[in-house]
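To: structure subgroup
Subject: Chain for Friday's discussion

All,

I'm putting the inputs and outputs inline so they're searchable in the archive.
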Amino acid sequence: MKIKLMKSLWGMEGAPLRENLERIAASGIYTGIEAGVPEPSEEKAFLSLLEEHGLDYIAMVYTSGPDHYASLEKQVEAAARLKPLSITSHSLLDRSGDAEQEEFFAKAVALQREVGIPIGHETHRGRAMFTPWHTAKLLRQFPELWITADFSHFCCVCESLLEGQEDDLQTIIGRVTHIHARVGYAEGPQVPHPAAPEYARELTVHVRWWAQILASRTAKGFPLTTVTPEFGPPGYLHTLPFTDRPVADLWEVCLWMARHLEESLIRG
């Protein structure tokens, strides 16, 4: 199975798109980007820059408003015009009721069939899939539902490295279409730096989860899995008190994680 490392544009907003794509392509390790859907007037230039730099695309969408499904449908249809490898969705809210969730995800599965592009509903704080047990429940209820796995959020919500939740995790691991490779810990969704020895256990546990996902997808015959080392800027990235200075360089943190993934999961 082929593994493609993607670079999120999150945290790179201060520079022009062309400059960011040049930097990503020049890294020699990333094969694409993960980013929001551009405005219709910007689609042509966006696609042209991706083609110029030989980069693939994963779209990010965020449901909102009084009708979350209408929000999803509009954004997915816009994303589909750009022919992304997949779509990552921040879907519904953690407080959305059972009836609303059932209706939303039933329609989301039908929309996925219609556009023919995998939609990974991200395991994210504040969204419907914010705990392992509820995510697993939804996946059992909707066999065609896919997720974007960001287990760092689970660690923060559950205030643990998910000990005792193996059954639900195995259900989730078998339904991943895309990985957000960020290392979380019991008290937060992002360690200051994944190379720091004081977070060696957290790194080992996350890499083990990601390896299980890749093994599951390989066993099922999927030809490709995409992975984004998605560390975020402040306030995900820790800062020094009174100065607001980041304790690490975000580009280097993501690049270290990408190289570690290449060594431990791709070449290893």
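Points worth raising on Friday:
The chain has one domain: 2-266.
Residues 2-266 form a domain with the TIM Barrel fold (CATH 3.20.20.150).

D.
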